[in-house]
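Researcher: Here's the sequence for the chain we discussed earlier.
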Amino acid sequence: MGRPVALQYGDTEGCRGQGGQARGAWGQKLVTGVRTKTEGVAVNRSLLTSLAAALGAAAIAVPAQAAPSVTTRTLTPKVQRTVGFDGYATYVFRAPKGRRIVSASARVTGASHDARVRRTSISSNRTRFTVQLFFPGEQGSPGKLVVRLRTS
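Model: Thanks. This is the structure I predict for it:
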């Protein structure tokens, strides 16, 4: 059939269309390669597979992406500041080195009073997850704070 090739970003060998480059229905240039950190081009695996089949390529080099992993962290929350009889605390959790947070959750378990998560947020660069806690009345056991970070 065809010879094995490894497609690289910008390869146009064997492509039909305007000026020998692969073009989409609206004239935009199609991605015909693999993602690298410097180019930042997101590649759809099915698009790459169909392009390889259209070009007659027997093999295609697709980089292995970081598999998503779930990290669970558990700690005993402590009141950091008080307003009247109520207590507040803020905890920041970081993603493992070289990874980004895809999704995150936080919950308080085993509290003898109504300790609860007041607010959560993920930083804009997706490396930190912030949890704000509220302790009404500051009485009883604060329970455990369980945080799950899904990273890739």
